[in-house]
Each structure stands twice: as structure tokens, then as C-alpha cells.
Write a structure and sequence with these properties.
Belongs to the group II decarboxylase family. This protein is globular. Helix 16 packs antiparallel against helix 17. It has a domain of 269 residues: Type I PLP-dependent aspartate aminotransferase-like (Major domain) (Aspartate Aminotransferase, domain 2), CATH 3.40.640. Helix content is 42%, strand content 11%. The strands form two sheets. It has a ten-stranded mixed sheet with strand order 1-7-6-5-4-2-3-12-13-14, with helices on both faces. It has a four-stranded antiparallel sheet with strand order 8-9-11-10. The protein contains 17 helices and 14 strands. It has 637 residues and is of the alpha/beta class. Bound molecules: pyridoxal-5'-phosphate. Pyridoxal-5'-phosphate binds next to helix 5.
């Protein structure tokens, strides 16, 4: 393709994108395809010869689009928004056109410097303290664009780990690093995003997952008690990841409380993950949600969620950039340049070396909307969420399950988790609306997020009408099913009563001969289990076991370590969330004390017990189940 054709095709592409976005509501929001659908439509090999552009574009419409979930669709209310806007698309296009790889200042000075400036702009607009801004006099901090919030959490945990290990090594110069590493403990709430757990797996550190309060907010006292308990067990708290705007219900950890408590544990890194909610802090009235940020060592938010910026653009600020980069610096000669000491080299701020010119799209967005335009957009989404909340509250069959502070509303039908699962499943299957569930406080809830850039009040009303229609249909069917079940059971019970009475009549002389039966005919009442008819009184089915755990430890790879620690056993559950199992370490065993790692033998015992239990429950297991159990054991080995 030469530049003449690029001009032509470029204009056609812009036309295609505009048509796509303008006519989105004519499409199903989610595709109706099965896994592997595309394999049947595309050839198994790449074409040997160049193909015609028009044919490629026809295939986009005929083969690709049927498998696309339309995240910008006005009926898409799942997850959090996927930022998108024309200025951002054009900014990305320009970045792609320039095509530089800005890993160091010298590799493309504008790429580095614009990133620093734009991050300072956004940091100020959000209301971050001055020490997070790179260009503020005397500041040691600064901002960087990462690919995702997960990466922000990972690099901050890596930095905290490096800092903690350095400190421990200085205190215990003759202790092997692997042993020191096995002592490190990170903390987060049960409501934190799973990326914290993934980061802990990558960092090879233990993670203690704590119970939040009834509002899904992690409290200072909970953190304090957990850390104190762990220190007594010989563990070393080194990192706390808090969340402002949790994924499940947009809840806020109590940052002021947590920050205050952490002052009793000097050296512990406090991270704030505000992937979605952080964008909203550009509105003055929402800044109180950022209270406590003065205690934080790092903060991240994703403009690619809620600031009209396309993926990928996840912004991270740190209080001390040297503490971040010292965990990640590798300096081969071929990457050194004359200004290494005077300029920022963003390759030291993250995992990849190569970096796109991502600040361009954020720069285009900030300039073309202005902070006021972005504030208007955020407020508009919040207003829509409030409207949806009101609609839910008006229908007494439903309940609201979160404090609606931003654009996310969590709701459910009053009734069982199963009922709500069914409701969501039939709505999503219809392709008319898309929402996702979450488990908050061990209850199944449905998340409704205001997502589309130009969503209107009518869109919200329309979505609610769809939900109500499906709920009516479901409740009617449920009631019908319940009634027929009651009738069936009654029929069976009456039959059983008659049969039993007959048997007793012929075998019991007291019944057979009323003369000897002073008390008369025995009462044959058989109590029916009272079936639930009214929706309001339907029992809540708990999906979790009734055992209450104060906290979990995700110890994903800990069995690989063999600590020689002989301390007393911990009473804390170990959680292998990725294996969907949990165990309690036995204090009587070697290697199972707190602060040490569960040994492979213990894990094998555990798996064997699990396997026996499984065999008792389902004695005839399919070959697949057998394979699964043995692969779990392989994993643990
Ligand atoms: N943290 C929070 C609070 C989130 O809500 C999400 C995703 O929704 C993430 C982290 C992960 O974001 P990313 O996909 O950018 O890694």
C-alpha cells in the first residue's frame, strides 16, 4: 500500500468506523457464536500472495464482526467502560504513524517528555499530592503510563519487594535471599482485583486476603491486626494494596484509617488501585473519595476505562521514582546514552523495554475535551447510574446491593442466588443487554454500569424495561414451577399416606380393630417441607461454605520453598485460589509452621484426602475427573 492508497483507504476506514459506531444499536450486543467459530471461516494458512483490500474489508464485516462483543454498544453495561473517543483514536493513529519505540529519552525525547508532562497534568487534575508530580520543585516522584492496572500493581509490588529484601539483607547479611523472600507478606482485601493475587504469584510472595466490613471496605484495624499477628509469627509485612472503587461493587477501602495504621509499620509500601474510580476524582465534588492519599506510595487509575482514552493507557504515579526503578533497572551498554543521568528513561519504570507513544492519545483527549468536558462526561454517567438506581428502588421485587457513588449499580432480585443467576443468564442469552455478575459479601449480584460515551436517560430506561420484562417472565415461570412441584409433592405425599395407612391397617390390630384402639385412628400427618411461594421470603442460598474465615493467605507457589522454620503452626487458611482449594496447615508437621511453606508432602496428603472425599461422593468417576485430580497433584508437585 503506497501513501496514495493509504489516503483513500484511510478515509474509507474512518467512514467504516463512524458507520459502525453510529449504527451499533442495530447489532446484538454480544455475539451468538460458539468457541472456534472463526477457525471454520478462515483458511488454516496465511495467504501466500497479497489479497485485495476490499475482500479483506468484506471479511471484516462477514467473519470478524459476527464474533465481536460490542463494548461501545448502548446496551453494554458489563464490567467498567472501555474508554473510546475520536480524539483518542486519532492520537493513537498518529502514534502508530510515528511508530517510535520510546524506551529511553534518547530513543525519542518527545515520547518521554510528553508522557511526563501529561502525567503531571492528569495527576494535578485528580488532586494527587505534589510529591507524585515529576516536574514539581523538589519532588522525587512522577508518573508513567503502563499497559494495564495489573501491570501497575505488579511493578509496585516488585519495587516494594526489592526494597524489603534490601532492608532484610542488611539486617541478616548471611541469610539466603530465598529464605528472606519466604518471609514477605503482602495484604489486600477480599474485594481487591485478582491482579493483586497474580502479582503475588509472579513476585513469589505470600498474600494475605482480608475480610472487608459490611460495606466491602477494608478497615485500618483489620490490616493492623493481621500485620501484627504476622510479625509475631516471624513474617515481614511489606506491601498493602488498597482499592478505591472495587471491581465488584465500586466500594472504597478506608484509606485514611489504613494509612494511619501503616505508620506503625515503617517501610511497608502502600499502593492505591483506583483503576476505574480514580478518573472521577477530576471532579471537585468527588475528591473526598481520595482522602488518605497523602499516606500512599503509589496510585494508579486507567484513563482507558473512564476518561475517553482508548486501551492501553493505565497511569501510575509513585512517591519515589528511585524506589520504583531500582527494582527494575538493567543497564546494558547498548541502551546507555549521554543524558542517562539527566532524563527519565521509562524502560526502568516497567516490565517491557519497548514502549508505544501512548501519551499522545491522552494529550489529544485532555486538550480536546478539556478537564471541564471530562468532568461533564463523568457526571453524566453518575447521573445515569442514579437514574437506574431509582428505577430499581421503585420495584419492590429488587434490591440495591451497593452504595451508588459513581457509575456502577449493583442490584438483584430479592430471592436466591440461583434465581439471580437465571435472570442474568436469560438476559445475556437474548443479546439485548449485557451485564456481568459479581459476588459481594458472598451474595450473587448483578452489575449494571453506565458505559457508552453518549448514553442517554432513554437508554437507561430501555435497559430497565428489558430487565423487568425478563424478570416478569422468570418469576412467572418460577412460580408456576414451584406450584407444580408443590402439587406433585402433595400428590405423592397423599399417595404415601394412603399406602402407609393401608399397610398399618392390615398389620396393626389397634387400627384394624377400633375396639382396642382407645385413642381412635392414629394421626397420619406427614409434614410437608414448607415450599417458598412468596418471592420476598425465598431463602438465600449461600454459595460459600458456612465456615467463616477471617482472612485467607494466597500462597500460590510457596510449596516450592523449603523453610526450616520450626515456629508454631498458623491458624490461618492457605488459599490456592487458582486451584480452587483451601487448606489449613497442620502445626504438628515439619515444614508446616507459620512463616514456613506448606511442604509438598502436606499438599499431597491434602490432595489425597480431597480425592478420597471426591471418590466417596462420586464413586464412578469419568476419565476426565481422574485426569483433573491427577493434574492437580502434578501442579502441586
Ligand atoms: N483493579 C481494578 C479495581 C479493576 O477494576 C480492574 C479491572 O476492571 C483492574 C484492576 C484490572 O485492570 P487491567 O485490565 O487494566 O489490568
Amino acid at each position: 500500500m503506497d501513501s496514495t492508497e493509504f489516503r483513500k483507504r484511510g478515509m474509507e476506514m474512518v467512514e467504516y468506523i463512524c458507520n459502525y459506531l453510529e449504527t451499533l444499536n442495530e447489532r446484538r450486543v454480544t455475539p451468538s457464536v460458539e468457541p472456534g467459530y472463526l477457525r471454520h471461516l478462515l483458511p488454516p494458512e496465511a495467504p501466500q500472495e497479497p489479497e485485495d483490500w476490499d475482500q479483506i474489508m468484506r471479511d471484516v464485516e462477514d467473519k470478524i464482526m459476527p464474533g465481536v462483543t460490542h463494548w461501545q454498544h448502548p446496551r453494554f453495561h458489563a464490567y467498567f467502560p472501555a474508554g473510546n473517543s475520536f480524539p483518542s483514536i486519532l492520537g493513537d493513529m498518529l502514534g502508530d504513524g510515528i511508530g517510535c519505540i520510546g524506551f529511553s529519552w534518547a530513543a525519542s525525547p518527545a515520547c518521554t517528555e510528553l508522557e511526563t508532562i501529561v502525567l503531571d497534568w492528569l495527576g494535578k487534575a485528580i488532586g494527587l499530592p505534589d510529591h507524585f508530580l515529576a516536574l514539581k520543585e523538589g519532588s522525587t516522584g512522577g508518573g508513567v503510563i503502563q499497559t494495564s492496572a495489573s501491570e501497575c500493581v505488579l511493578v509496585t509490588m516488585l519495587a516494594a519487594r526489592a526494597q524489603a529484601l534490601k532492608r532484610l539483607k542488611a539486617q541478616h547479611p548471611f541469610v539466603e535471599e530465598g529464605h528472606l523472600l519466604s518471609k514477605l507478606m503482602a495484604y489486600c482485601s477480599k474485594e481487591a482485583h485478582s491482579c493483586v493475587e497474580k502479582a503475588a504469584m509472579i513476585c513469589f510472595v505470600k498474600l494475605r486476603i482480608l475480610e472487608p466490613d459490611d460495606d466491602a471496605s477494608l478497615r485500618g484495624q483489620t490490616i493492623y491486626e493481621a500485620m501484627e499477628e504476622d510479625e509475631l509469627q516471624g513474617l515481614v509485612p511489606f506491601f498493602v494494596s488498597t482499592t478505591l472503587g472495587t471491581t465488584g461493587s465500586c466500594a472504597f477501602d478506608n484509606l485514611p484509617e489504613i494509612g494511619k495504621q501503616l505508620q506503625r509499620f515503617p517501610g511497608v509500601w502502600l499502593h492505591v488501585d483506583a483503576a476505574y474510580a480514580g478518573n472521577s476524582f477530576i471532579c471537585p465534588e468527588l475528591k473526598p473519595l481520595l482522602k488518605g492519599i497523602e499516606y500512599a506510595d503509589s496510585f494508579n487509575t486507567n484513563p482507558n476505562k473512564w476518561l475517553l482514552t482508548n486501551f492501553d493507557c493505565s497511569t501510575l504515579w509513585v512517591r519515589d521514582r528511585i524506589r520504583l526503578t531500582s527494582a527494575l533497572v538493567v543497564d546494558p551498554l547498548y541502551l546507555k546514552h549521554g543524558y542517562s543521568d539527566a532524563a527519565i528513561d521509562y524502560r526502568h519504570w516497567g516490565v517491557p523495554l519497548s514502549r508505544r507513544f501512548r501519551s499522545l492519545k491522552l494529550w489529544f483527549v485532555l486538550r480536546s475535551y478539556g478537564i471541564s468536558g471530562l468532568q461533564h462526561y463523568i457526571r453524566h454517567h453518575i447521573k445515569l447510574a442514579k437514574r437506574f438506581e431509582e428505577l430499581v428502588l421503585k420495584d419492590k421485587r429488587f434490591e440495591i446491593c451497593n452504595q451508588v457513588k459513581l457509575g456502577l449499580v449493583c442490584f438483584r432480585l430479592k430471592g436466591s442466588d440461583k434465581l439471580n443467576e437465571k435472570l442474568l443468564s436469560i438476559i445475556n442469552e437474548s443479546g439485548k443487554l449485557h451485564m456481568v455478575p459479581a459476588s459481594v459479601g458472598d451474595r450473587y449480584i448483578i452489575r449494571f454500569c453506565a458505559v457508552a460515551q453518549n448514553a442517554t436517560a432513554e437508554d437507561i430506561d430501555y435497559a430497565w424495561d428489558i430487565i423487568v420484562d425478563f424478570a416478569n417472565e422468570l418469576l412467572e415461570k418460577e412460580q408456576h414451577d414451584e406450584l407444580s412441584e408443590i402439587m406433585n409433592r402433595k400428590k405423592q405425599d397423599t399417595l404415601a399416606q394412603k399406602r402407609s395407612f393401608f399397610v398399618r391397617m392390615v398389620s396393626d390390630p389397634k387400627i384394624y380393630n377400633p375396639a382396642i384402639n382407645k385413642a381412635g385412628t392414629p394421626k397420619l400427618s406427614m409434614e410437608l417441607p414448607s415450599p417458598v411461594v412468596s418471592r420476598g421470603s425465598a431463602p438465600i442460598i449461600r454459595t460459600q461454605s458456612s465456615v467463616d474465615h477471617n482472612s485467607w493467605i494466597s500462597w500460590p507457589l510457596a510449596f516450592l520453598f523449603n523453610s526450616s522454620n520450626e515456629e508454631k503452626g498458623s491458624n490461618v487458611s492457605l488459599r490456592f485460589r487458582h486451584l480452587d482449594t483451601n487448606v489449613r496447615p497442620s502445626s504438628s508437621r515439619r515444614n508446616s509452621g507459620a512463616g514456613s511453606s506448606p511442604s509438598p508432602e502436606n499438599e499431597l496428603d491434602y490432595v489425597n484426602v480431597q480425592q478420597q472425599q471426591l471418590e466417596q461422593r462420586c464413586p464412578r468417576r469419568s476419565p476426565m475427573a481422574v485426569r483433573k485430580a491427577s493434574s492437580t497433584r502434578d501442579n502441586l508437585n
